[in-house]
Specification:
Elements lengths: L2 H6 L1 E11 L39 H13 L3 E2 L6 E3 L11 E3 L6 E2 L2 E2 L2 E10 L3 E3 L7 E3 L6 E7 L6 H18 L11 E10 L8 E6 L1 H4 L1
């Protein structure tokens, strides 16, 4: 990039990081959480398949993992938390909504690598869709319902290098705490960047870049 362009515009970045948690079972059922399973649709049950009348039960180990990460980044633990329904169409979530957290996350605040955090919360992962089969798609529900931690930063990052360093440090924390393997090549950690560019200190139009490989490519 030319030097004149660098000084003319200001880049502002906020990150949303999803990381699968290392637990024996899924987030709300006792189906196996196994990222290495190659056979499709074997680690499933009526709960993660969204059958009517099923009752989800929270995975305690997943909650512990998020609290450990929250402590590592100096976040504030919630004295009350709850789960919400994220209602919009998912072709790879059979019940038609995602169980997530919004108003009352497990962790608020904290910082990592000098980057202020907004929140850390728990939700469930989607299934895996394959669209390279010709004129149809396939869905593997082994991943549906796997515990997923979402970490959201404040929009205070201004370079791709700082964003990449942040993701690397978070990956190291997850691995060191035993909370997750955070293997980006296997989709166990996915980084989404909300980016705006403006000529001054105001925010420009936000563009969301989904599932970036910030660690390996920046």
């Amino acid at each position: 990039m030319e030097k004149g362009v660098e000084t003319k515009y200001k880049t502002t970045i906020g990150l949303e990081v999803h990381a699968e948690l290392k637990t024996r079972t899924k987030m709300f059922c006792d189906s196996k959480n196994d990222a290495d399973e190659e056979r499709p649709n074997v680690n499933i049950c009526p709960i993660c398949m969204g059958h009517p009348g099923t009752l989800p039960v929270i995975n305690k180990e997943a909650v512990k993992h998020v609290l450990k990460v929250g402590a590592a980044v100096g976040g504030t633990f919630a004295d009350f938390t709850e789960f919400d329904r994220k209602n919009y169409f998912y072709p790879d979530i059979p019940k038609g909504y995602q169980i997530s957290q919004y108003k009352y996350p497990l962790i608020t605040g904290g910082s990592l690598n000098g980057i202020e955090l907004t929140r850390i919360h728990l939700e469930e992962d989607t299934a895996t869709s394959q669209h390279d089969k010709g004129d149809y798609s396939l869905v593997d529900f082994n991943r549906a319902g796997v515990p997923l931690m979402e970490l959201v930063t404040e929009p205070v990052i201004h370079t791709a290098k700082d964003a990449s360093n942040f993701a690397k440090e978070l990956q190291l924390i997850l691995q060191s705490l035993g909370a997750g393997d955070a293997n980006m090549e296997k989709g166990e950690m996915r980084v989404e960047a909300n980016i705006s560019i403006s000529p001054d200190d105001t925010f420009g139009t936000k563009v969301e870049v989904k599932k970036s490989q910030l660690i390996s490519r920046c």
